[in-house]
Write a structure and sequence with these properties.
The protein has 1011 residues and is of the alpha+beta class. The protein has 34 helices and 33 strands. The protein has an eight-stranded mixed β-barrel. Helix 2 packs antiparallel against helix 7 and helix 13 runs antiparallel to helix 14. It starts with 6 loop residues before the first helix and ends in an 8-residue tail after the last helix.
């Protein structure tokens, strides 16, 4: 039988179908009007909404059938029906979003969509789950299918006809036409539902059964579907209105831009294209280099052209809807908002155009200069603003380049003028740096000068804490630390080194971090070439990256060449002045400048009522350093001593080099004379007692100190230095390490000068005489030799002890002449004794350090023994151990020659020096003389006895004779005989004897009693 149809649900099904068709038209209009991503979203969402509407209408139509046995729902078939509806809706919407297809293609699409919608009915009907299933009237089903095809075709035609750009229909048509198409579809659904033939005995055969009276369920489905469709339609309508508003605002912006373009025609002469602006304005809008934005009173961007991507790195869609402040640095945003708010509140300025210079912020965080101008307009009663943003980086760079080159030209001119009046290199370089900051407006300027394989800063000016720059040292050694970098390589090649972005430089990371932290973004180093050699470099720092262009580098390199020329000329004048006042080795003041400074110090001390100390420092045995290690080591030692004294004095102004190994030191501002002793112990003594490191070896150098105090010992430079020298000389002669000047010292010095004066003529006046002290065999007392000892018999002073005048002989250099006389006299006395028939032993003559270092000592000895038949002329040489162990290699060479002449060589005072066993074996010696101090102490100390025993054993093992000097007691003699000492010399047997007494001793048999 044919079941009755519920009229209420029939109306509901038709209403849902009509609403679905209306929503379809609204969504289809948005798909065509929206851009790619939004269009795809509208297509997907619309297909779901429209398909759901068709499915809901079909389900309501089925529920309208009043079945006696009730209905059910097969979930799987119902979902398939829903999918068929979505597919049909997708077909209709996808076609409606593009251009209208040809008629045949349109018919094909309509039939395909109708088939999908018919599938909804064909799947929903079995979903009712009746048993036996319903039968359908063929005519009714075909009629329903025809109405569905008609509805689909009508909807497609209306979609293309109702488009805003093509519609010429009366106002009600866009609303009525979709409803008509929807009612056709609803009729088709009801017709298809009414075609069902139900058996009276049919019952629900599915799990999900519906209530016998489905009216409430149908109305609920209709209400839910209507709500979804209404929301979709409203959303489409609102989106359409928003698109209309945007189009209107774009039109307004286009008009505003056209106005601005017309106003700027006289300035840029680029507005010839405005005659056809209506046809080309959008192309111009998207291709102009300036960024154009449209903002509202809330500072929100409503439009941005494509230039925003090129200028700021944002796509237009990323800007639209956001605050315009996102294009500004954070620090400027608050000021912009406040200024914009004041503008909005100031009616007098509302029509005023403004242009400001400010900074923009790119998407990557970089700032750049921009020019911002805007025009206010009114859109639908709302205030909007068209903003025009221009990147002024290139313009500012051109302006900056012109200004920079102007400053550099002025810098060149001013420095060249300063060069004409500067005579000091330090002053020249200091002025160059200062003018570079003042005139050139650099951030930092440094001039470094070459010191060996390093370039060290000597002049610096600029805005910085200088904590690193003052200690910046560039190594030129490619194997040294930092010497393999590009800066060092450029300087070695004498070429310019430019770094226009310190953050990306290839120098070490530490340098990049330090430079960037201090704001140095660009650096240029220009070599300073003097005499064809690298003399230093000029370093200029700027805060802007890419500061140094090719023209700037060319001009600044010319400046560096001018500075190099000036340095060369100034160096000549400075060298003359320097040599006049400074010691070239240590860089300290010389005696002349020291005197000037000392007068200034004394004047200041006099005004302040303070004391002052003048200290002269003499390095002991400095010549041995030169002889042993070479003059280079000696120079290094002098420089090291100078450095240490400068540290003691506090600055180089108070230190001077007064002689080869003599330094002067001023200690001003002493409250009282006793303060010096504390200063001496705390600083001078401790500092000078530490070793010096020369050529990878430790060297300890002792020194003597002479001190004169202001004002007690003098009130001017001459008297203070003279008295300090007197104290120093007395310290050297007395063996004291430190002596203060006193009247006694002055007296002793005068006596010494008087003694030296008389000593100079003593040789001509024949006042010198040789005394002879015998050496005897320890075994039998037979005289085996004699030592010639010089004595001075002065008519005024009487017999002067050797300890008083022998050091003066060495100090004055008279020892060379007197030493030659001693050799000749000893040979003459011995020859006379032989001619008298006496058994004459060999005579030993002492050789001083001055004689041994003399280059003609070998010739002197040869001339003395020439003509004497006895081997070596019967003469021997005695040389002290300390003298012999300085410049050993040279001494070995000379002594070998002398020994080959037949002379025997003895080491005097053996044990008091620092003999090396390696050198001892190489020395051409025949005997060693044990120093008197060991002989005196061996009877009192077991250790000393062991030393003497060791010396004798060592000498005998090397085939050397051993002579003990200073023997004064029988106990000493007994021990020496037990130790098998070869020869003995001392007061136990005989004092040094005049020639006549020694001659008588020889006459008496040449033997001395041992008991």
């Amino acid at each position: 039988m044919r079941p009755p149809i519920d009229p209420g649900l029939s109306v509901a099904a038709a209403a849902v179908a009509a609403a679905t068709a209306y929503t379809f038209f609204q969504v289809a209009s948005r798909i065509g009007a929206s851009k790619a991503r939004a269009g795809r979203l509208w297509l997907a969402g619309g297909a779901v909404v429209v398909g759901t509407g068709f499915w809901a209408a079909q389900l309501i139509a089925l529920l309208a059938l009043r079945l006696p046995a009730g209905q059910g729902i097969d979930p799987l078939l119902s979902v398939c029906a829903l999918f068929s509806g979505v597919l049909g809706g997708a077909l209709l919407l996808s076609v409606s979003s593009g251009p209208q297809p040809p008629l045949l293609q349109l018919l094909g699409i309509g039939f395909a969509a109708a088939a999908a919608l018919c599938g909804v009915s064909l799947l929903d009907s079995p979903a009712a789950g009746l048993d036996p299933p319903a039968q359908f009237d063929t005519v009714s089903v075909l009629a329903a299918a025809g109405l569905t095809v008609l509805s689909c075709l009508l909807q497609l035609v209306l979609v293309f006809r109702l488009r805003p750009a093509e519609s010429r229909l009366p106002a009600p048509v866009p609303v009525v036409a979709p409803l008509v198409a929807g009612l056709l579809q609803g009729g088709a659904l009801l017709l298809g539902a009414s075609a069902a033939r139900i058996e009276p005995v049919s019952a629900c055969a599915v799990a999900v059964c519906l209530p016998p009276d489905p009216l409430a369920l149908g109305l609920a489905i209709a209400g839910g579907a209507s709500m979804v469709l209404a929301l979709a339609a409203v959303a489409a309508r609102l989106d359409a209105e928003r698109g209309t508003l945007t189009a209107q605002m774009l039109s307004l912006a286009d008009a505003a831009i056209a106005d601005v373009r017309r106003e700027a025609a006289a300035k840029e002469r680029a507005q010839d294209s405005l005659r056809d602006a209506e046809a080309r304005h959008r192309v111009l809008l998207e291709t102009v280099p300036d960024t154009i934005v449209l903002i509202d009173t809330d500072n929100v961007v409503r439009y941005a052209n494509q230039s925003v991507w090129r200028m700021f790195g944002y796509r237009p869609e990323e800007i639209v809807g956001n605050k315009i402040s996102m294009l500004q640095p954070e620090r400027l945003r608050m000021a912009h908002r406040q200024a914009f708010q004041r503008y909005l509140e100031d009616d007098a300025r509302r029509s005023e155009h403004s242009a400001i210079e400010t900074m923009g912020l790119r998407g990557d965080g970089r700032e750049f200069p921009i020019e911002l101008s805007f025009v206010e307009s009114n859109f639908n009663g709302r205030r909007v603003f068209a903003g025009f943003i221009r990147d002024t980086s290139a313009r500012r760079e051109r302006e900056s380049k012109i200004l920079r080159q102007g400053r550099i030209h002025a810098l060149l001119s001013r420095i060249n003028g300063e060069m004409l009046h500067t005579r000091s290199r330090h002053e020249l370089l200091d002025r160059v740096c200062r003018i570079a900051i003042e005139q050139g407006q650099f951030r930092l300027a440094i001039v470094g000068l070459r010191d060996g394989q390093e370039i060290k800063p000597v002049a610096l000016h600029g805005v910085d804490d200088f904590s690193i720059e003052r200690n910046v040292v560039i190594s030129l050694d490619p194997d040294g630390l930092g010497g393999d970098g590009p800066t060092a390589a450029a300087l070695r090649a004498q070429t310019v080194r430019v770094c226009n972005d310190s953050a990306a430089d290839i120098e070490p990371v530490a340098w990049r971090v330090a430079a960037t932290r201090r704001g140095h973004r660009s650096v240029a180093l220009f070599p300073l070439i003097v005499g064809g050699q690298l003399a230093g470099c000029l370093s200029l720092y700027a805060s802007e990256p890419f500061f140094f262009g090719d023209d700037d580098v060319r001009l600044l390199n010319e400046l560096a060449r001018n500075v190099s020329y000036a340095m060369e000329f100034v160096a000549r004048d400075e060298k003359l002045d320097y040599l006049a006042f400074y010691d070239p080795l240590t860089g300290l003041a010389n005696r002349r400048l020291f005197g000037d400074r000392l007068n200034e110090f004394s004047q200041a001390a006099r005004l302040a009522g303070q004391c002052m100390a003048v200290v002269l420092v003499d390095l002991e045995d400095f010549k041995s350093v030169n002889d042993t290690l070479g003059s280079g080591a000696g120079d290094s030692l002098l420089r090291a001593v100078a450095t240490r004294l400068v540290r003691i004095g506090g600055n180089a102004q108070s230190v001077a080099r007064l002689g080869a190994d003599v330094f002067g030191l001023v200690l001003p501002q002493l409250k009282q004379a006793s303060d010096f002793q504390a200063h001496w112990q705390a600083q001078i003594a401790n500092s000078m007692s530490r070793s010096f490191k020369l050529h990878e070896q430790e060297l300890r150098v002792s020194a003597k100190f002479g001190v004169a105090l202001f004002p007690d010992d003098g009130d001017d430079a001459d008297s203070l230095v003279r008295n300090a020298e007197a104290a120093l000389k007395q310290a050297k002669h007395s063996g004291e390490r430190l002596l203060f000047y006193s009247q006694e010292i002055s007296k002793a010095l005068n006596e010494r000068l008087n003694l030296a004066s008389q000593l100079r003529g003593a040789l001509e006046r024949k006042e010198f005489v040789l005394y002879y002290q015998p050496k005897v065999h320890a075994a039998d007392g037979l005289i085996s030799g004699a030592e010639a000892l010089i004595r001075w018999n002065s008519p005024e002073l009487g017999q002067v002890p050797p300890g008083r005048f022998v050091p003066l002989l060495e100090e004055t250099g008279l020892v060379l002449e007197v030493g030659r006389w001693a050799l000749i006299q000893a040979a003459s006395d011995r020859k006379r004794w032989i001619e008298m028939g006496l058994a004459t032993p060999r005579v030993a003559v002492n050789l001083s350090s001055v004689q041994l270092r003399s280059p003609d000592i070998v010739e002197v000895v040869r001339l003395v023994i020439d003509g004497i038949e006895e081997s070596g002329g019967g003469l021997d040489l005695e040389i002290t151990e300390t003298i012999l162990m300085t410049d050993v290699e040279q001494h070995i060479h000379k002594l070998k020659i002398v020994r080959d002449m037949g002379l025997s060589i003895s080491i005097d005072d053996f044990g008091t020096g620092y003999s090396s066993l390696a050198y001892l074996a190489k020395l051409p010696i025949n005997a060693v003389k044990i120093d008197r101090s060991f002989i005196v102490g061996m009877t009192e100390s077991t250790d000393t006895m062991n030393i003497v025993s060791t010396i004798i054993s060592l000498a005998h093992s090397m085939n050397l004779k051993v002579i003990a000097e200073g023997v004064e007691s029988q106990e000493q003699l007994r021990f020496l005989k037990l130790l098998q000492c070869d020869q003995i010399q001392g007061y136990l047997f005989a004092k040094p004897l005049p020639p006549g007494d020694f001659e008588q001793l020889l006459r008496d048999g040449g033997r001395l009693a041992l008991e």
